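Design a sequence for this backbone.
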């Protein structure tokens, strides 16, 4: 029910923004991109590949035998479910783990994915933090945008402080992840005794805090992957703005990508960020010296890219279900 309501509200906001900006201007911008959308898809393909490789590097040498393709497939399936539902990561992560069942031990899947996601979350906070500071120091903006930017900056700082507290107080990690693991196991319809959950959490705690101490090369490779992921996003935004017909700068592309990361975090419960992504980009574009139609078009093209990869994820999920059914027969 909540999914239906959020989609309807997002659709209303989307239609309102398109009418306010001007459908003709948006159509012109989309037409200017044309076959260049293929280039956008190709560029965006690098991002799930980078995070899949990062996930693989978090695993031990023995666990990596699962193979890159299986991890990449699991990531796309999880992304599809997360993008198209209001449950977001609460659904995405269990689907990723479920996709690797029979190929990777449960505890290895949960712990390695949690570590990769944690490092990604910290890197995203850094990305948003840097983009917000650059935005505040470089561009003149309305009072409403200043307030929104300061709120975003404060939220990110709180997240960073909370992360530092968790890292310095290791005992809090176990209790904090307990609820998340319990929910994950229930969503996967697995009946795991409390003793086993505690064991899983203890091993997860060890994996997270020992990655740097015992496998520093893998730790820095995962960090490098997260940096490359964000750089790929900036490059995709820059190319998209260029194809639209704008005259982008790397600075503007960086800010667009940072704000989009903040929107993804704040509105992860809205399927495909329908409406809110267009609102954020449409409001931001004039401040960066571009028309509102450019910002809305950027968000629409980004949404088209999300739907493309989500469709592929659903196809992979359907194929996996069909394969399991065939094996059971």
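Sequence:
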């Amino acid at each position: 029910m909540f999914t239906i309501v959020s989609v309807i509200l997002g659709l209303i906001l989307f239609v309102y923004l398109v009418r306010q900006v001007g459908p003709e201007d948006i159509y012109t911008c989309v037409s200017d991109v044309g076959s260049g959308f293929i280039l956008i898809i190709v560029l965006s393909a690098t991002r799930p590949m980078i995070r899949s490789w990062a996930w693989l590097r978090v695993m031990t040498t023995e666990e990596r035998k699962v193979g890159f393709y299986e991890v990449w497939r699991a990531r796309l399936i999880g992304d599809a479910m997360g993008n198209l539902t209001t449950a977001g990561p609460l659904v995405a992560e269990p689907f990723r783990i479920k996709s690797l069942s029979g190929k990777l031990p449960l505890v290895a899947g949960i712990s390695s994915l949690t570590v990769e996601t944690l490092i990604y979350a910290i890197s995203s906070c850094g990305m948003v933090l840097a983009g917000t500071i650059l935005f505040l120091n470089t561009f003149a903006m309305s009072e409403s945008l200043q307030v929104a930017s300061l709120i975003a900056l404060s939220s990110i700082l709180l997240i960073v402080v909370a992360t530092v507290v968790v890292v310095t107080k290791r005992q809090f990690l176990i209790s904090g992840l307990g609820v998340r693991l319990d929910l994950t196991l229930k969503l996967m319809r697995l009946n795991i005794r409390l003793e086993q959950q505690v064991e899983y959490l203890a091993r997860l705690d060890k994996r997270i805090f020992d990655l740097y101490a015992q496998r520093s090369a893998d730790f820095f490779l995962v960090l490098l992957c997260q940096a490359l992921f964000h750089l790929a996003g900036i490059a995709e935004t820059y190319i998209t703005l260029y194809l639209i017909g704008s005259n982008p700068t790397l600075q503007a592309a960086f800010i667009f990508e940072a704000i989009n990361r903040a929107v993804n975090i704040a509105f992860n419960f809205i399927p495909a960020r329908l409406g809110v992504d267009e609102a954020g980009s449409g409001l931001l574009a004039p401040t960066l010296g571009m028309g509102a139609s450019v910002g809305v078009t950027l968000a629409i093209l980004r949404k088209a890219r999300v739907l493309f990869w989500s469709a592929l994820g659903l196809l992979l999920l359907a194929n996996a279900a069909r394969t399991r059914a065939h094996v059971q027969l």
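Confidence is low (pLDDT under 50) at residues 171-179.
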